[in-house]
Automatic annotation (TrEMBL):
Reported function: Condensation of UDP-2,3-diacylglucosamine and 2,3-diacylglucosamine-1-phosphate to form lipid A disaccharide, a precursor of lipid A, a phosphorylated glycolipid that anchors the lipopolysaccharide to the outer membrane of the cell.
The protein's name: Lipid-A-disaccharide synthase
Single GO cellular component term: membrane
Reaction(s) catalysed (UniProt annotation): a lipid X + a UDP-2-N,3-O-bis[(3R)-3-hydroxyacyl]-alpha-D-glucosamine = a lipid A disaccharide + UDP + H(+)
Enzyme class: transferase
EC number: 2.4.1.182
HAMAP family linked to this entry: LpxB
Spans traversing the lipid bilayer: none
Family designation: Belongs to the LpxB family.
InterPro entries referenced in this protein's UniProt entry, alphabetically: Glyco_trans_19
């Protein structure tokens, strides 16, 4: 009989990650069938999309509450299909708030439940480890410090590396990126990434523009690249430029092309998130910043138990790049931190070397290693849920 695997991937990033995993599993199981919730990249690998993954995209707690009944209905309908069709395994790709409940029910039904991309229990919600231990048969982690946390809780776990580390070259070609963007090699360039969500850009646009103004006063030759992910975020940033009377600044907005902008840059100013990891894999000195509502920040600070919010510092276990958050996230402080990078060649070289070591640690051929960890659960004599 054919191996059948149910999967749920949330949002675009999960669709990409899951598509690579399907391809890696097919190298061992060419006739395997996959079904569940996914996107176009998974579908291109032969995945049977019962519901599109865009339905799982929620933005913040308010949106999640508004759509609770809809998402709960989809989850229960998929669970009914899984119970009826009895696949050989279930793989939840990211989307922990959706998948962990489903994984617990699937595991209770005697089907191995594997979770790909460990939830950030090391950052905010360490209490979820007990729920995870009850829900999953195996956890696949992207970061090398995570397995120990799961092992202590008795969760079978494998470190598989980070897919971005496989995708990004060990030596980024800054000259080629500048040539594509039409930027002279000798010109100072700051890439400014205020985030991908509309709320992030609203919170940071004025501050980033103020920082550019301050830096421009000190060195009028510097160029500022601002890649924005959507038309909505671009409009928000354009409105902020008008509001701050910044039409004369040498700011070039890009539609996407964030990786190219960071590759071309001397220094990156980045909102905390995955983009900070991308900047590290591109070996770029950076300043990490974030600003949210006062009460939300107090709550998050109380929940956090790590001294950093940026992935480069978390992964290195020390402050290798500055983090200027909340009240410190103002144009004067940010401009000073960026200027410090421009003024210190040795410091820039040292952080690039540190990020090269990090890149090699994370580069593990993620899809292959994930597939190898999953295959024993598809062997009838292998691990049981």
């Amino acid at each position: 009989m054919k191996i059948r695997i149910a999967m749920v991937a949330g949002e675009t990033s999960g669709d990409l990650l899951a598509s690579h995993l399907i391809r890696a599993l097919r190298r061992h199981l060419p006739d395997a069938e996959f079904f569940g919730i996914g996107g176009p990249k998974m579908q291109a690998e032969g995945f049977d999309v019962r519901w599109p993954c865009e339905l799982l995209a929620v933005h913040g707690y308010v949106d999640a509450l508004k759509r609770y009944r809809e998402l709960s209905g989809i989850r229960r309908a998929l669970l009914a299909q899984i119970r009826a069709e009895r696949p050989d395994a279930f793989i939840g790709v990211d989307a922990p708030d959706f998948n962990l409940w489903l994984e617990g029910k699937v595991r209770d039904a005697g089907i191995p439940a594997i979770h790909f991309v460990g939830p950030s229990i090391w950052a905010w919600r360490g209490g979820r480890i007990k729920r995870i231990a009850r829900s999953v048969s195996h956890m696949l982690c992207l970061f090398p410090f995570e397995p120990e946390l799961y092992e202590r809780a008795g969760v079978p776990v494998s470190y598989v590396g980070h897919p971005l580390a496989d995708e990004f070259p060990l030596e980024p070609d800054r000259a080629a990126a500048r040539e594509r963007l039409g930027i002279p090699l000798e010109r100072g360039v700051v890439a400014m990434l205020p985030g991908s969500r509309q709320s992030e850009v609203r919170n940071l646009a004025d501050i980033f523009i103020g920082t550019a103004k301050t830096l421009h006063e000190r060195d009028p030759e510097r160029l500022f690249l601002v890649p924005l992910a959507t038309r909505e975020t671009r409009q928000i940033f354009e409105e902020a430029l008008h509001r701050n009377d910044a039409g004369g600044l040498p700011i070039r907005m890009l539609f996407g092309h964030a990786v190219e902008a960071m590759t071309a840059a001397d220094v990156v100013l980045v909102a905390s998130g995955t983009a900070s990891l991308e900047a590290a894999l591109l070996k770029r000195p950076m300043v990490i910043t974030y600003r949210i509502g006062k009460w939300q920040y107090r709550l998050m600070k109380r929940m956090a138990y790590l001294p950093w919010v940026g992935l480069p510092n978390i992964l290195c276990g020390e402050t290798v790049v500055p983090e200027l958050l909340q009240d410190e996230a103002d144009p004067e402080h940010l401009a000073a931190a960026i200027d410090d990078w421009f003024a210190d060649d040795a410091r820039r070289a040292a952080v690039a070397a540190r990020f090269s070591d990090l890149h090699r640690t994370l580069r593990q051929d993620t899809a292959r290693r994930a597939a190898e960890a999953i295959l024993p659960y598809l062997d009838k004599a292998g691990p049981k849920a």
